[in-house]
Design brief:
Blueprint (H helix, E strand, L loop, with lengths): L3 E2 L6 E2 L2 H11 L14 E7 L4 E7 L4 E8 L7 E7 L2 E7 L4 H13 L12 E8 L8 E3 L2 H8 L9 H14 L5 E5 L9 H4 L5 H7 L8 H15 L5 E7 L3 E7 L2 E5 L22 H9 L3 H10 L2 H6 L4 H9 L3 H25 L4 E5 H6 L1 H8 L11 H6 L4 E2 L8 E4 L4 H13 L8
Parallel strand pairs: 3-8, 8-10, 11-14, 14-16
Antiparallel strand pairs: 1-2, 3-4, 4-5, 5-6, 6-7, 9-10, 11-12, 12-13, 15-16
Helix pairs in contact: 7-16, 11-12, 12-14
This protein binds adenosine-5'-diphosphate.
Length: 438
C-alpha cells in the first residue's frame, strides 16, 4: 500500500512507516467494553458507490470532533477534505478502495496536529448507515451473517449494498478489533402498520420472501421525528418528513413512530430520485424487452441508473435542472413538475393518514436548499391550513420555520443529522443494548 498525498498541491510522499502507523495499534487486545479510557469515539461512515463521508463523534458528549470525505474512490486522484477544530484542509489523495479511504481517514484523524484520535485504537466502533439486508433490519454488529444478508440484496439496492459490503469486508479483515455496526435504514419503519406495509400481491411473497414496503432513509426520518417533536415541544406530534435529495422520500410520523414511507421494497421506489426511477409499473418491462431487445438486467440497470430526474431531463443534479428550466427547457420544466407532483401525491396521502399534520419538514440537499421546489410543493394548499411565507422561504438557511402566521400547519427546514442517529445506535448496541430486529 503506498499513498501519496498532495497537500496544498505539493506532492508529499508519505512513508510506508507512516502509512502503516495506524495499523499495529489496531491489532491490540480484543475490545470487550464500549469505552476506551472513559471516552467513546465513534466514526460514522456514509458510503456512496465512489465516495466516503464520515463524522467522528465523542459520544460521551455527542460532540463532532471531525468530519470529512473522499470522492472518486478508485481513481488515482481522489479529492478529500477534513474539518476539525475549525480548520478545513483539502487534498488530492490516492484511495484505491473504500477500505483505503477509511484507513486514510484514520491516519488523518490520528495526525498529532488534529488530536482527534491519539491513535485509531481509541475508536470504540465504526458505524455504517447501511441500507438493506435480506431478513435483517435494525442495528446489527457486522459479521458474516449480516454481510451475507446484505449481499443477498445486492441487486435490490445496487447503488448501496455492494460498496458497503466491500468496505465492511475489507475493514473487518484489516481492522479486526474495531467493532463494525450496521444501522439499517429500514429499522425506523418497523412500526409501519399492515395497511401501509403490504403490496397487493400473493400474501406468501411478503411472509416467505420479504416482499413488502420496508421504507428507507430511516436515520434521517428518525432524526427529524425527534428534532421536530423537540422544537414543537410535542412528543405526540404528527410530522410529515420530506427528505428530498439524491434519494427522496416522504415519511408520515406520529408520536415518534413511522406510519408510512414512500420508499417500498427497494430504494428505487416511491418518488423519482436523481437517477433512480421511483414508482413504476412492472408490466412495462416485458413490453420494453420486446421493443428494445434489452434483457431484464439491462432494463433494471436503466431503471436504477438512467431514470428518475436524469431520465426525464438529462441532468442528474437538481441545480442543473432548475437552471435549464429557467432557460426555457421544456424537458427540465417537466422533470420538475413530475417531481413536485409526486411529492404532493404522498403529501396528500399522509395528510389523510395522519388526519392533518402539526408540521411538514423539508430536509436533504433539495429540501434544504431549493426554495423553488418548496414553494411549488406547498402551492395552493390553503384549504389544508398550509401557508408558506414566501420571504422566509426565499431566504431560509439552516434550521428555521418558513410558514406564515396564518398557517395551521408549521413548515420547517431542518438539516438532517443521520450520522448522529447512527452514532447513537452504535453506542446503544455497544453499551449492551440488544441487537434489534433479526
Ligand atoms: P444524497 O441523497 O445523495 O445524500 P443530498 O441530500 O446531498 O443527496 O442531495 C443532493 C441533491 O441536492 C442534488 O440533486 C442537488 O442538486 C440538490 N441541491 C444541493 N444544493 C442545492 C441548491 N442550492 N439548490 C437546489 N438543489 C440543490
Amino acid at each position: 500500500m503506498y499513498w501519496k498525498r498532495f497537500w496544498a498541491n505539493k506532492e508529499m510522499p508519505v512513508s510506508r512507516d507512516a502509512q502503516r502507523r495506524a495499523l499495529p495499534a489496531l491489532r491490540c487486545a480484543s475490545r470487550l467494553t464500549s469505552t476506551v479510557n472513559g471516552t467513546m469515539k465513534i466514526l460514522v461512515a456514509n458510503l456512496g458507490s465512489t465516495s466516503f463521508k464520515y463524522r467522528l463523534f465523542d459520544m460521551t458528549t455527542e460532540a463532532v470532533l471531525a468530519r470529512g470525505g473522499i470522492e472518486r474512490i478508485g481513481s488515482s486522484q481522489s479529492p478529500c477534505f477534513v474539518e476539525s477544530g475549525g480548520q478545513r484542509e483539502e487534498a488530492i489523495v490516492e484511495a484505491r478502495d473504500h477500505a483505503a479511504a477509511v484507513r486514510l481517514c484514520l491516519e488523518q484523524l490520528a495526525d498529532p496536529k488534529r488530536r482527534c484520535l491519539r491513535d485509531p485504537s481509541e475508536l470504540s466502533a465504526i458505524g455504517f448507515k447501511a441500507v438493506h439486508a435480506q431478513g435483517l433490519s435494525g442495528v446489527q454488529r457486522v459479521d458474516e451473517r449480516v454481510l451475507a444478508a446484505m449481499e443477498a440484496y445486492a441487486d435490490v439496492a445496487p447503488a448501496h449494498n455492494p460498496p458497503y459490503v466491500r468496505a465492511m469486508r475489507l475493514l473487518s479483515q484489516e481492522l479486526p478489533h474495531i467493532p463494525l455496526v450496521a444501522a439499517f435504514e429500514t429499522g425506523f419503519h418497523e412500526t409501519i402498520p399492515a395497511a401501509q406495509r403490504y403490496y397487493a400481491v400473493p400474501r406468501e411473497w411478503a411472509d416467505k420472501y420479504g416482499i413488502f414496503k420496508h421504507g428507507f432513509h430511516g436515520a434521517s426520518h428518525r432524526y427529524i421525528a425527534e428534532r421536530a417533536a423537540q422544537l414543537l415541544d410535542k412528543p405526540g406530534a404528527k410530522i410529515i418528513s420530506c427528505h428530498l435529495g439524491g434519494s427522496s422520500s416522504l415519511c408520515a410520523i406520529r408520536g415518534g413512530q413511522s406510519q408510512a414511507c414512500s420508499l417500498g421494497m427497494s430504494p428505487q421506489s416511491g418518488l423519482p430520485h436523481n437517477n433512480r426511477v421511483g414508482e413504476f409499473d412492472p408490466f412495462a418491462l416485458p413490453a420494453l424487452m420486446r421493443a428494445t431487445g434489452k434483457t431484464l438486467e439491462q432494463l433494471l440497470d436503466d431503471l436504477a441508473n438512467r431514470s428518475g430526474l436524469l431520465g426525464l431531463s438529462g441532468h442528474n443534479d437538481l441545480r442543473d435542472i432548475e437552471t435549464e428550466a429557467n432557460k426555457g427547457g421544456s424537458q427540465a420544466r417537466q422533470a420538475l413538475e413530475v417531481f413536485v407532483a409526486a411529492v404532493r401525491h404522498y403529501l396528500g396521502a399522509y395528510l389523510l393518514l395522519l388526519n392533518g399534520a402539526d408540521v411538514i419538514v423539508f430536509t436533504g440537499g433539495i429540501g434544504e436548499n431549493s426554495a423553488r421546489m418548496r414553494q411549488a410543493i406547498c402551492a395552493d394548499l390553503d384549504w389544508f391550513g398550509i401557508h408558506l411565507d414566501r420571504v422566509k422561504n426565499d431566504n431560509a438557511k439552516g434550521e428555521m420555520a418558513i410558514h406564515s402566521s396564518q398557517s395551521r400547519v408549521q413548515l420547517w427546514i431542518m438539516p438532517t443529522n443521520e450520522e448522529l442517529i447512527v452514532a447513537r445506535q452504535a453506542k446503544a448496541l455497544l453499551s449492551g443494548g440488544r441487537e434489534s430486529s433479526a
